[in-house]
């Protein structure tokens, strides 16, 4: 049996609608993931100018990153399906109760005004008959509410899955098991108030001509600790590259192994120098023995 052009158009239209909804859901998941990930590093995702297509790729990691992630996704959507059914069942009970009560009330109004000819009785009868006509649209409203309930639960599940995965990945990357590269940034000192001198690592750079607004303690905590130091396994100091975007380089010092659950890393944003700079990336810390500060 061959399909008619109208049937083919209908199938194509539904397929296009499904793709559109899927794309919107993936973008939503990617945006929530990136928002929660960079929020952990105290950065606003809207200021990073990330490419839109990257938000469509990230959800693959959210839903299918590993076996545990796949199981977690399956469990979450299974629970969502149960929640959807329970919500729709509850809405049906409430709507049926409201409709039956309304019909009973309208019947009483019509029967009570059946033999009355006053203006008020006629208006009440007209209102009751109009109400009966409006009750016919209950099925349409119920269908609309059902779609809203389904979409809402799906978005809730996607939101929490993306948020949990974003925070989990950020916490991993901020610690000792980070997937982010270890970095060595070498840049001219004219516009750089921190960092060690390559020819004299014990000398602090001059701060003449610089000004500060805000918490000076943050600067003092950084000054003198700009290099890596893994001599103390309990409190290693490792600098990693978070992001390069929009002319800025974002670095952070990895959290120690004994970091508290609510501890967040401090992020250092460095504007790219017009005189050039050198960035060396490595998956692991160098084993070269250097003098410690």
TrEMBL record:
<keyword id="KW-0812">Transmembrane</keyword>
<protein>
    <submittedName>
        <fullName>Uncharacterized protein</fullName>
    </submittedName>
</protein>
<feature type="transmembrane region" description="Helical">
    <location>
        <begin position="75"/>
        <end position="95"/>
    </location>
</feature>
<feature type="transmembrane region" description="Helical">
    <location>
        <begin position="12"/>
        <end position="32"/>
    </location>
</feature>
<keyword id="KW-1133">Transmembrane helix</keyword>
<feature type="transmembrane region" description="Helical">
    <location>
        <begin position="52"/>
        <end position="68"/>
    </location>
</feature>
<feature type="transmembrane region" description="Helical">
    <location>
        <begin position="144"/>
        <end position="162"/>
    </location>
</feature>
<keyword id="KW-0472">Membrane</keyword>
């Amino acid at each position: 049996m061959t399909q008619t052009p109208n049937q083919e158009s209908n199938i194509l239209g539904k397929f296009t609608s499904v793709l559109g909804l899927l794309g919107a859901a993936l973008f939503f998941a990617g945006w929530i993931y990136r928002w929660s990930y960079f929020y952990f590093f105290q950065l606003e995702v809207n200021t990073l100018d990330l490419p839109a297509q990257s938000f469509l790729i990230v959800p693959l990691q959210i839903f299918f990153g590993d076996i545990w992630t796949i199981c977690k996704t399956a469990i979450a959507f299974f629970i969502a399906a149960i929640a959807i059914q329970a919500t729709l069942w509850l809405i049906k009970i409430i709507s049926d109760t409201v409709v039956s009560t309304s019909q009973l009330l309208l019947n009483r109004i019509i029967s009570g005004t059946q033999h009355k000819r006053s203006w008020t009785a006629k208006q009440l009868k007209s209102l009751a008959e109009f109400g009966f006509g409006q009750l016919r649209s209950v099925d349409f409203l119920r269908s609309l509410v059902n779609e809203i309930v389904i979409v809402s639960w799906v978005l809730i599940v996607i939101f929490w899955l993306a948020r949990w995965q974003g925070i989990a990945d950020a916490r991993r990357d901020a610690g000792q098991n980070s997937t982010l590269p270890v970095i060595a940034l070498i840049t001219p000192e004219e516009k750089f108030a921190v960092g060690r001198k390559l020819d004299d690592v014990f000398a602090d750079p001059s701060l003449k001509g610089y000004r500060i607004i805000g918490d000076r303690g943050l600067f003092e905590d950084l000054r003198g600790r700009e290099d890596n130091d893994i001599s103390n396994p309990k409190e290693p100091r490792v600098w990693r590259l978070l992001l390069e975007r929009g002319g800025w380089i974002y670095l952070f010092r990895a959290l120690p192994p004994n970091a508290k659950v609510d501890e967040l890393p401090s992020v250092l944003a460095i504007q790219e120098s017009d005189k050039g700079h050198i960035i060396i990336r490595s998956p692991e810390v160098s084993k070269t023995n250097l003098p410690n500060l």
